[in-house]
Specification:
By secondary structure, this protein is of the alpha/beta class. The protein has 16 helices and 20 strands. Helix 1 runs parallel beside helix 10, helix 1 runs parallel beside helix 16 and helix 13 crosses helix 14.
Length: 507
């Protein structure tokens, strides 16, 4: 008789793990608190517009990527229409101008075009530029991360790179996993290019590997944006899971994981309803799982240190301002960032000196014809402010976010011109929105921030030695989060479950 698995959460972690487990012969059932699958990978409708919370680009949307191979193990990627941008982003600099007296830096997704553009701007930096693009092209020659077909697990990218054929890129990966964009920017003689690289992440220090790998995928047309929004991608995985015999219980709010004699035996959801199973796999929020569902009973040293933020910081939460304009602004770049004439202070205390805007007119599914959807995403480290405010003073919460939105619209107008009279839709999502729908701790959008050692091991183990038959996997399992991390972790936790239950892993 096939062993049963109760999966908590139908985000991309739950759906992908559910698919793999079904394919390996397990009988699975997913319990989802919301009325839709997807978790953070979702979108919703407002007044004819579709608001996209995440998945503005997905690594592995076409051949030339190990992630494409993983996604293709589960769904037909060719059945989804993806848009690949030639231009990743336009960045308006604070100080410097190029030789054409422009303060706009064009970051092209096409590596050849980007290389030519940089050399044209600064011939004296040609050697540095060509070495940079050469290293990215070298990364493109390899599957990153390598897909291990065997039952044994390789929990980190670093360990996988020890494989002989990957030694060629090990020095680059090692170097760029430690070097930040700020440090790299100092290599350029051109003040314009130097400032541009320092502003890649709005003066935040981010590892060069975080910048280089997506650029490598984008150049290969393997990091596209799903036409129609995130939910299109989610629904493909949901359909696959159900076609494999899986079952999803929506509006099933899990309250507790049942443990008997240090063995997970089932879960409690909604009004004390119980569902027993041989195995429990939580793909829900990390903090919610260990501190609520397991009632703090199995807090080991590693979990305690994570909860006290000693090892990792929580990835930023965000404010998403979506503004529908009854006007075609398709002449604007799809993604651009600029300095504010007047700094903005959020109600949560965060100071913003620059603003980034996404224009979604390239996608006629999410934007009504002749109209424009403007999205402004502001990161904050103080998601708790919005979460607590919504809980304690809902009226003030609404007033605060609406007043904040007015400031954002004023800032947009200062850059692109008057739009207020043409606005026909406004939607504001806060960290409280994220936390309410996904239980995400502190409203985090991608779990943990990577540490100084970018290639460090997984942050959360796939299992607890104190609780037999309990497993955990989500974007919290590996610092940095994101969809590629999710499917890799789902694949690996399934391999572990198969190994522990003497079941063959199908791939």
């Amino acid at each position: 008789m096939n062993k049963t698995v109760n999966i908590i959460g139908s985000g991309i972690s739950g759906l992908t793990a559910g698919c793999y487990l079904q394919m390996c012969g397990f009988k699975t059932e997913i319990f989802e608190k919301h009325s839709n699958s997807g978790g953070l990978c979702t979108s919703w409708k407002r007044n004819g517009y579709i608001i996209n919370l995440s998945a503005h680009w997905i690594i592995g949307t076409d051949t030339g990527s190990s992630f494409y191979k993983m996604w293709s193990e589960l769904i037909d990627m060719k059945s989804i229409k993806f848009h690949n941008h030639d231009l990743k982003i336009d960045i308006q600099l604070n100080t410097n101008k190029d030789k054409n007296d422009s303060n706009i830096f064009h970051l092209y997704s096409n590596l050849k075009k980007f290389e030519k553009y940089l050399i044209d701007l600064s011939p004296e930096d040609e050697r540095t530029i060509r070495q940079f693009t050469k290293h990215i092209r070298l990364l493109q020659k390899f599957d990153l991360p390598p897909i291990d077909k065997k039952q044994s697990l390789f929990p980190t990218l670093f360990n996988n790179l020890k494989k002989i054929k990957y030694l060629e890129i090990l020095p680059i990966v090692y170097k760029w996993s430690r070097q930040t964009n700020i440090e790299f920017s100092k290599k350029f003689k051109s003040p314009f290019i130097s400032e541009a690289f320092s502003l890649l992440y709005d003066e935040e220090k981010v590892k060069m590997l975080v910048f280089a790998l997506p650029l490598a995928y984008m150049d290969n047309k393997s990091a596209g944006c799903p036409i129609g929004g995130s939910l299109v991608f989610t629904k493909k995985l949901e359909e696959k899971y159900i076609s494999l015999g899986g079952k999803i219980n929506f509006n099933a709010d899990v309250k507790k994981i049942l443990v008997d004699k240090n063995k997970a035996i089932g879960l409690v959801y909604n009004n004390e309803q119980v569902n027993s199973s041989d195995i429990i796999l939580s793909t829900a929020d990390w903090h919610f799982t260990f501190f609520n569902l397991l009632n703090k009973k199995y807090i080991n040293k590693d979990i305690e240190e994570l909860s006290q933020l000693k090892k990792y910081k929580v990835f930023f939460s965000s404010m998403l301002f979506s503004i529908g304009v009854n006007k075609d602004l398709g002449y604007l770049p799809h993604f651009f960032r600029f300095p504010l004439k007047k700094e903005i202070i959020s109600p949560d205390g965060t100071l913003y000196k620059r603003l980034e805007i996404k224009i979604s007119n390239f996608d006629e599914v999410i934007v009504p014809k002749g109209k424009t959807l403007i999205a402004v995403n502001l990161y904050t480290r103080n998601g708790d402010y919005w979460i607590n405010l919504r809980r304690t003073d809902f009226e003030l919460y609404n007033k605060s976010k609406n007043n904040f939105c007015d400031l954002i619209i004023d800032a947009i107008e200062s850059y692109i011109g008057k739009i207020k009279a043409d606005i026909d839709m406004i939607d504001v999502a806060t960290p409280a929105t994220i936390q309410r729908y996904t239980n995400s701790w502190k409203g985090s959008t991608q779990g943990w921030l990577p540490s100084k050692n970018f290639l460090s091991s997984t942050t959360c183990a796939f299992n607890l030695k104190e609780v037999k038959n309990f497993y955990y996997s989500s974007h919290w399992s590996t610092a940095g989060g994101g969809l590629p991390v999710v499917i890799k972790n789902s694949r690996d936790v399934t391999k572990l479950i198969c190994k522990n239950n003497k079941v063959e892993f199908v791939y």
